[in-house]
Amino acid sequence: MRRREFLKSAVTAPLGANFIFPERRTGKPNLLFVWTDQQRPDTMSVYGNSRIHAPNLDKLAAESIVFERAYVSQPVCTPSRSTVLTGLWPHQSGCTENNIPLPEKIPCLPEILSDPEYRTGYFGKWHLGDELFAQHGFEEWESIEDTYREYFRPGRDRSRRSTYHQFLSELGYKPDDPEGVFSRLYAAKLPIEHCKPKFLEAKACDFLRRHRGEPFVLHVNFLEPHPPYYGPLNGLYRAEEMELPPNHADLSGEDEPLRHRLLRERARVSRPEGMDLRTEAGWRHLIANYWGSVTHVDRSVGAILDTLENLGLADRTIVVYTSDHGEMLGAHRMIQKGVMYEEAVRVPWLMRVPALGRRQRVVRGRCSHIDLMSTLLELMKRPMPGRFPGRSLLPAIRSGRPLRGDVFIQWNATVRYVENDFLKPEFRTDAIQRAVRTNTRTIISPDGWKLCLSDADKHQLFDTNKDPWETRNLYYTGKHAGVIAQLTARIHAWQQSVKDTVGPA
């Protein structure tokens, strides 16, 4: 057999054969960090949805630590992603709104580990600046988004295209956008084998095979179920069988922040992918398509996890699964994110940690993505107590006791991107301008009180134990002055501790 034929046959040999990829038994755990964009926790059976078909996520949950109530640092992409990747609050990294590049001086996990033995890769959506270019310690880079070119730093080549764009071009597809790129909706309408999840699946599995003998850190970030509310599995779920959220009809009136009412009106007239959100049928169709996107991702997650298993890497690899924020999906008749309601700020968070046993442990109570970096570093045998504002959750995981402590969430005004439509002439009233520019700080206490303080709009207070769907704003009832005073003081104390100078005084 010639050498070339030998190598080809060795690479395609049974995955258990190790002679072509000798192992380095360093004792260092691998990390596979899988995350989605805009996924609610109740798209999995472990979080209460027994109707959606996500068998691979169900299997992962059955072998993982499941955080019952996990929250983001800020319910919009760039700020939340900055926290996941750096362990810092958005105001500490400077990524307080979408499309702000993560400063080069702020390290991400590979830079924090600073271990040359680790092979590192980031595949998928980044949304932290210079989308198409490898950075922050990630050696291998597979990009899927061509929508952020205008936000590249000076000197970056804006004519460059994502590796997913190149993949489609090699298949003979022609860009549909006048600027010479493939739009998200175009990509979502392709056959499933040419959509973004399958592309990322193939790249991730190839990475695992090539680096099976070395410690690695691999991040795989799917765009789905982020809009467009469209995908190859449209029709998998019958729209007429979708249930509207219990708070779909909730219109809180004058006690609700004006910004929320503007967002609701924007959703009502938006007609995403042609769905009429003035009707219940339109909302049900949107929910069904969203569920289809979750199942779409589930299939590729399953293939990646199967590859990990077949390569004999599963017992040496920590697997994290989460999302960057939730999705309103008709709650309070809103879509997308950017508000402090539970549907937007809660996310799934699973961690399969072989050293702790592959069985399900549900960690009760509330936690935050701000705790993710400290927890991960301790699990990877690199504890760095005091370096990050978050805490390691490993003691609570080991003890089995419910999590205690307050959860804090930021909202920093996103005038230049998310809400530009509210800056049109017809919206140029003083009240609307203040509402669009509002900053909010939220606290959720261990006993379920939730206070949202705004610097330019209505405040909100909910008792989430008695009102889990957040339909009764108790702030202006005059009955809870003590609770408001106590939670306000805790917000201010937290702001002082993390040097957060923006928001309610």
Q: What's the domain count?
A: 1
Can you write the helix and strand succession as a string?
HEHEHHHEEHHHEHHEHEEEHHEHEEEH
| Proportion of helical residues | 25-40%
Strand content: 5-15%
Tell me, rounded to a whole number, the average pLDDT. 92
**Quick one: how many beta strands?**
13
Large-scale geometry: globular
Low-pLDDT stretches are 1-23
CATH architecture type = 3-Layer(aba) Sandwich
CATH topology descriptor: Alkaline Phosphatase, subunit A
Considering the protein shown, what is the CATH homologous superfamily? Alkaline Phosphatase, subunit A
Key structural traits:
505 residues; alpha/beta; Alkaline Phosphatase, subunit A; four-stranded antiparallel β-sheet; 13 strands
How would you describe this structure to a colleague?
48% of the residues are buried. The chain is globular. The longest helix is centred in the middle third of the chain and has 31 residues, at 280-310. It has 15 helices and 13 strands. The strands form 2 sheets. Strands 1, 2, 3, 4, 5, 6, 7, 8 and 9 form a 9-stranded mixed β-sheet that branches. The protein is of the alpha/beta class and 505 residues long. A hairpin with a 5-residue loop joins β12 (449-454) and β13 (460-463). α8 (196-210) packs parallel to α10 (280-310).
